[in-house]
Amino acid sequence: MVKFNFDASFNSTARTSISGVIARDSQDFILAAGTYPHTRIADAFTAEAVACERAVVFAQDLGFRSIIIEGDSLSVFKKVTSANFDKSVISPIIRDILSLRDLFQSVTFAFVGRQGNEAAHMLAKLGFRQPEVRIWVEEAPASVALRDRPP
What are the RNase H type-1 domain coordinates in residue numbering (predicted)? Predict the structure, then answer.
């Protein structure tokens, strides 16, 4: 199983967001990290949903088959794990996430508090300094690399 943590930074004035995603193996070694800019984002709620979707796409792009998706947006996790049809403004994004789930052998969605999602949060913030897609393989920026690791 590979764990993908995601978070979003949102700029309401510019209506842009940055998704930060970091992948770790079962021994907490960094496998990959990335920042992804998005435009025409309506609100922070949408930014978090887009970041979750980006984490699933990143996992697919990297070829992993069994994944855990973690983030600190409880509302997004409630929607992707609900048996009810989502009618919110982010329903197209939720449907996308659920259809992507079928491309994997195993996908688990898990809510973690802010403290357990610090590396992804730092990546999302870092992305506003350089707002283009950035990918790191088997590493992450130094300011991010040691976040979320157990003591």
Answer: 5-126
